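Comment on both lines for my students:
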Amino acid sequence: MEQEIYIVRHGESEGNAGLPSQNHRDIPLTEKGKAQAKEIPQQLPWKPELIVISPFLRARQTAQPTLDKYHDTAVEIWPEVREFTYIMPKKCTGTTAAQRKPWVEAYWSRLNPFYIDGEGAESFFELVYRARKTLRRIQNSSKQRILIFSHEQFIKVLTDLVERPLDTADDRMERFNRLPRLGNCEGRLLKVNFQMETNYERTK
């Protein structure tokens, strides 16, 4: 059975806008992000049979206009589709993206998929594991058209996993930052049959 996944990045958050972040889970959307979220129902390629949402606030806020339109569609919160937390959260409290840039660069320069920055952080290997777990949940679902509200880095690794299912975590990490980026509220349509014959279309 072929399934289609339309996976959408959240709208512009205060963190994306360069403002300080207090808690990586509870960063809200900006007014621009809320306006972007209102456009998503018109972008969808079909009516979803299941809507999956990251537990992070910015993803839940982005999903709300779509939930309002498709109020009869099943909705689930999946922790697996949350953003990649690779810098220790406590260290990031009250910082901006610009202030975190040296830590981000140091993390990726290691090219170690098993490195963990500190308490509350996760390794790249764990991110890949979450993406694999997400695909298993999709495979076990009876729904054929699934809409997911998630985050850029998770979407990138999920797409890479669909396209190159047999690669190692080392291979994925080495090319990760060269993969195509997504804008806020940009989506990707992935077609999956779980026979490793997969493809995706990038959409706006």
Q: What stands out?
A: The first helix runs from residue 31 to 43. The chain is about 40% helix and 15% strand. The first strand starts at residue 3 and ends at 9. The radius of gyration is 16 Å.
